[in-house]
Amino acid sequence: MKGVVVVVVMLSLSLSAVAEAAKVEKTCKAAAATDKRVNVRMCVSQLGHHRDSQKAEDAWGLAKVAALVGVNNADLAADDIKDLEAGRGIPATIKPALAECRKLYRGVGFAFAGAHDDINDRSYVAGEARLSEALSLTQLCNAAFAKVGVPLPQPLAQMTADSIQMAIIATAITCLVKETAATPPTTSSSSSSTP
């Protein structure tokens, strides 16, 4: 009897995981259809692996997850910057750019966190504005390095690309949610009868 229960539980968990993956993929593809900059593979990977995606029942939940992934990426980028600043052999010419990026990434994290809160409150326009701020601040880190004529060092370059992509993904999904919320329910013409 215990064996049957274990098999049923494992089958249930497996079906749940398949349904969750399909929901994430469907949402990511819909986001890419509205914004060609959305990298579907990254969207599915990042959202599908976040622990809160299991609780996300719809695009609204996944928009919040995307914002949380953005917070995580910003925190990782800030850690990478600290490691780069502490490393030996860092040219003096890029130290000001690193310091600028460290400050900017604090703002990126706060912007993503604010977007999460706004989306959670269903304030989609405010959420989009915060995501736009996160994108802008991330791009300013690129500009800080361009100003000194040096490309972003790894792993900061990858974290910056990921943060930019998450801002784009979160914005596209938030737009889907906003459009869905703004669409009035359709009524069937057969339900209205004329005497």
From TrEMBL:
Source domain of life: Eukaryota
UniProt entry tagged with the keyword Signal: yes
GO cellular component: apoplast; plasma membrane
Limits of the Pectinesterase inhibitor domain: 19-173
UniProt signal peptide: 1-21
Signal as UniProt keyword: yes
Protein's UniProt name: Pectinesterase inhibitor domain-containing protein
Originating organism: Leersia perrieri
